[in-house]
Amino acid sequence: MPTHASHQEGRLRPAPESFLSDELISEVSQKGVDTQRRQLLRGAFAGALAGVSGLAIADDPNIIEVPEWSRSLGKAVATNPYGQPSIFEANNIRRQSPGLTQTDQASVAFTPLQNLFGCITPSGLHFERHHQGWVDIDPRRHRLMVNGLVKEPLVFTVEDLLRMPSVSRMHFLECGANTALEWGNSAVPTVQYTHGMLSGSEWTGVPLSLLLERAGYDQNANYLLAEGADGSGMTRTINLVEALEDAIVAYGQNGEMLRPEQGYPLRLVVPGVQGVSWVKWLRRLEVGNKPYATKDEASHYVDLMPNGQLRQYTAIQEAKSVITAPSAGQKLLSQGYYCITGLAWSGRGSVRKVEVSVDGGRNWQEARLEGQVSTKMLTRFNFDWVWRGEPALLQSRVHDDTGYIQPQRAALVAQRGTRSIYHNNAIQTWRVSPSGEVDNVQVG
Q: How many CB atoms lie within 10 A of CB 259?
């Protein structure tokens, strides 16, 4: 179980509180921010900035002295032909979990959600789950076979697929075991470890339906077997009817070819479905009429129920949300205004509404949804909050467009018990202490 909370990388910089009136602070704390209160906040921010500018110039050597980077030539493009992050962002990396990593090959690497903005995860920070390590396949030798209940079995090269009609769509990818360690009574130290098997990308490739139509698939078939070319031979049964709606045989991610760790040169994208079904290094698609009960869907990725039975084929990732800042391992540096921010998503459709509570779920207020809300994709939400130094319990809950509402932990545990691993979409709680320290607690 990871205990190294010192690895938390986020720092929260509050606006000074002195420029906010007590009346405005009370209004924001109790009622959130509507159009009128937002205008008042903007005016207060502008006034505060004008008031400190003279003092900053007089006292800050970073303003009155010319820094070295402004007195010399920069580096040549050839120095860095493939762009890399700033050296000052070297701590913004994926991290492995001692509790879930079994070997160097069978491993998990968590996305640093607390440090990211917007909804797109940089390819180099996208979470990884490997069952036997990653491989870098020569695309000239790779083949994709389509067989089973089809009129004409086909074999495609990567070049064949690159020449076919393509689509680009943004979707989240979440491991079925995301938030697994929260089922029990232990609370891991940061959002990177609680929810970091989650990322959002733009995926580019050929619609699955186009390939199956070319092969003449049996219209009465209900299942699809996807097989990977890595050493683990990962194979998964997929609901064919749902996959025909929006699944993609992808070769691109975030505007470039897939990274090797993400399945280069081909992977299956099945929006809304748990990540293990997004088979990497995709080599075969077989159309069938019954579930295949492969090794990784008979002994793994099954839900242990309170009565001891195992539930299979629960692939959909239900609606879920999490506050990424402030979150566990971070510290509020002083009292004042903060923008609570986080992510929401649903494997069944789109986010309709996100609510935030600062008192452990007793009262809820609606957050703002930022940017475009896309189906089966991450949605960024923001919520205005003024912290006066009091203890707080921060939570978020999402409503999706099917009417589903993210459950409290107690309600989910009542149905599922505490011995499960997969598909934990309970409301997450972060506790803020009077000192400003934020940690992970379980409520209910």
A: 16
CA atoms 303, 304, 305, 308: torsion sign? positive
Residue located via tokens 């159309």: 287
* Backbone angle region of 255, left / alpha / beta, with phi > 0 → left and psi within -120 to 50 → alpha: left
- Would you say 101 and 107 are in contact if contact means Cβ atoms under 8 Å apart? yes
CB-based contact 204:167 (threshold 8 Å): yes
Residue 282 tokens, joined = 């995709």
Mark out the alpha helices in 82-220 (DSSP H runs). Answer: 158-162, 191-195, 208-215
Identify the residue with better confidence: 135 or 40: 135
Q: What is the pLDDT of residues 67-117, one digit of tens each?
A: 888 888 888 877 888 888 889 989 888 888 766 656 666 678 899 999 999
DSSP state of 16: P
| All residues at 6 or more sequence positions from 245 whose CB lies less than 8 Å from its CB, including other chains | none
Sign of the C-alpha dihedral, residues 275, 281, 287, 289? negative
Peptide bond into 139 cis (omega under 30): no
Distance CA 247, CA 373 (A): 19
* DSSP of 419-436: S--S---PPPEEEEPTTS
What pTM was computed for the model?
A: 0.87
Q: Using CA atoms, how far apart are residues 379 and 352, in angstroms rounded to an integer?
A: 10
**What is the three-class DSSP state of 191?**
helix
Q: For the chain, what are the domain ranges?
A: 21-84, 98-311, 320-441
Of 243, 252, 313, the C-alpha closest to 271 is 243
Is domain 320-441 given the CATH code 2.60.40.650 in the classification?
yes
The CATH H-level superfamily of 98-311 is Oxidoreductase, molybdopterin-binding domain (3.90.420.10)
Distance CA 432, CA 389 (A): 9
CA separation for the pair 306, 47 (Å, rounded): 58
The two domains 98-311 and 320-441 share their CATH topology (first three levels equal): no
Q: Which of 243, 238, 92, 71 has the alpha carbon at shortest distance from 171?
A: 243
